[in-house]
Amino acid sequence: MAVISIYIQWKMPSALPDDFSHFNIYRGPSCAEALTEIGETDDDVDSEGYYHYTDVSGEGGFCYRISAEDIYNNESASVCVCYYDMTDYLCRVYTYLVDAESNPVKIEGLARITSLPEDYIGKFWSGQEVAKYSDEDTGYIHWDLPRGAVVNFIIYDMKINIQETIPDVSSKALNDWID
Fold first, then answer.
1. Is this model's pTM higher than 0.70 or not?
2. Taking a C-beta distance cutoff of 8 angstroms, is the pair 6, 64 a contact?
3. Residue range 136-145, pLDDT digits in tens
4. What is the largest CA-CA distance in the chain?
């Protein structure tokens, strides 16, 4: 079971109403489902709204709803913010790239997502160019990409331009696709 520290911070209105009491914080699997209250702020909220919550759930996503409550127990409309742990939905595509003398080289390249699976929810979008993560000392580069996405890999220095579907695995060597 994962333990995750969640820090929720929001911009406070310039002036709170005289009858303001506190903010309520709710949590659930999605904003469309019923959320459970997990806490509330006190009435001494400073200029930045802030809440810390330690989540001990193994679930893959969380939604938090924040609402204001007055001294008469009237609750305002709320704002919902979601966090999704995408670890189980990403594949690390990697390779080691070195020159002919086995010296690491600076590699310029990118991965362009051309399409995503219909059921995909997350931070990527079709047409997005995803920058590589690299370690220039070892020549290791990688991208963390959504499984099932069709991606065009372009590595300029090595004249590589291939399009592949990201497999349903945690990692894949780019060299497996290069002849």
1. no
2. yes
3. 667 778 888 8
4. 75
Radius of gyration of the chain (CA): 23
For the chain, the 3-state helix, strand and coil shares in percent, each to the nearest 5, are 5, 55, 40
**Interatomic CA distance for residues 165 and 179, integer angstroms:** 16
Q: Establish whether domains 4-84 and 91-177 are of one fold.
A: yes
For the chain, give every domain's residue range. 4-84, 91-177
If you average pLDDT over residues 114-118, what whole number do you get? Answer: 86
What percent of the chain has pLDDT above 90?
A: 6
pLDDT, mean of residues 31-38: 75
Least Cα distance to 95 among 66, 64, 132, 59 occurs for: 132
CATH class in words for 4-84: mainly beta
In CATH, the number for domain 91-177 is 2.60.40
